[in-house]
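Q: What changes when adenosine-5'-triphosphate is included in the input?
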Amino acid sequence: MSASVAHATETMTDLPSQERAGVIGVHGVTKRFPGVIAVDNVSLTFHRGEVHVLLGENGAGKSTLVGMLSGLQEPDEGHLTLNGHKARLASPSASLEAGISTVFQHSMLVPTLTVLENLTLGAPWHERPPRARIAARMEELKREFALSLPLDAVVGELSLGQQQQIEIARALLRDSKVLILDEATSMLTPQGAQELGERMQQLVRSGLAVIFITHKLAEAYRYGNRISVLKQGALAGEMGPEELKAMSEEQAVDEIVRLMFGREAGTASVENRKSTARDSIVLKVEGLSTQGDADVMGVRDVSLALRAGEIVGVAGIDGNGQKQLAEAMAGQRPLIAGHVELEGEDITRASVAQRRRKGLRYLTDDRLSEGSVSAFPISENTVLKDIGQPPFWVRGVERPQRIAQHARDLIARFSVRTPNEMTPIGRLSGGNIQKVLLGRELSGEARVVVFNKPTYGLDLKNIETSRQRISDIAERGLGVLLISTDLDELMALSDRIAVMEGGRIRGIVENDGSGEALRLRIGRMMAGEEDHKQATP
Ligand SMILES: Nc1ncnc2c1ncn2[C@@H]1O[C@H](COP(=O)(O)OP(=O)(O)OP(=O)(O)O)[C@@H](O)[C@H]1O
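A: The predicted holo structure follows.
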């Protein structure tokens, strides 16, 4: 028996009627990871002829759900159905055989091969369809879905939009019945996104079911026939075609914002920290722009000022330029425009080390590969950004005793749980690595600390401790720029919150304690909508 759609299927009549309809369904599925319920008792049916949009904040469970449909993981509880039959998708090839193709956010193509080679990749050489057959089929796809691809072009030389078309073409050549597009528009131009939206409609008209994951509300409304919202793993709400048709775009967006970002009635909101902001400006950024990378968004025309003792939060769905902004401030990413001032001094052209010495510190979200060298002892990691500098190096000679003492002090001050300072940092837990990195950034005369997702991936106790430390840092008079995808965290800690979307700042709001209304206002901007001051809970 093939590993696919476990042929241990039940007959349609064995299943409740609501499970029969639709090409694919998940029924009461739950998936747990250590410390988190990623998907919590979710039931959904994906129908032929429909673009079904999945929405939800970072961490809501969308990828985990898609992982179940694409055979990357199986549910701990609940089951899947295909055409009304109970089914198992135990591997990616089982999912493909069942007619489900997934186009992931990051291209799965081989950039050095041609379009034709990529289209036939994976098929054993003796089964590869001849070029003439593919060319003929591509002509059909061009007519039907406006998929126009130069078969002999090398994939790496094509635009991201064209590369995505290859993946869609590959799914169609396989006769897929379900096409999953995971954040497929995030790196496309508005024009490219619109073309994809139109193409999705053509695809569903030809009988496919499309599952479309996006973070942008306008796209969800314009291109979706049905919208489901996930929140903390559970299904927060679903809007079917009739309901959507009866709503204006504005009404639909308001409802989705409420489902995505609203709080359940009766949920206690987190208490806001008392502001410790002073008058003096410690960091000023004006008109800052940076280039992105191949599939990373750049930053456009960002201006903000940070006062001593102030925490300015930066909200946004992951990947909207936040990391690039932090890197540009830290001097790790070149600017194409704008300038940066630290306590009135222009540091636009200063190197990473110079900025650090002047007191501008940066805590990366990538603790293990960018922030530390995991095989090196904690001691070496505490001076990683001070190599060659006194007091740890004197006239080019390393002072191991001095470094070890510095590391022992840091371990004691930040309560790092480790046998001793010689333990490789990679052996510590996430929370303890974070403490070492924070200790490193705060040593010497720090004036401004830029945090990128400081509590991401930590357990609850370490999250609390980290937030308290951030609050203490501001209280000591340092300026803090706090980048986070967690709105609760930002609302609990920040004086003001800047919202980034599409590499730009959509708006900067005072965290004035207006709770739910402010939450929805920020959520709207995160999802690509204009600021809407009147948003009501
Ligand atoms: N392999 C894993 N191991 C541990 N935890 C995981 C794993 N995969 C996901 N999680 C956790 O499960 C939760 C749901 O994650 P998931 O990636 O499904 O969310 P998402 O809605 O796709 O988010 P995003 O928009 O950021 O991609 C998160 O808390 C995440 O940290």
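Observations recorded in class: The two ends are 53 Å apart (CA to CA).
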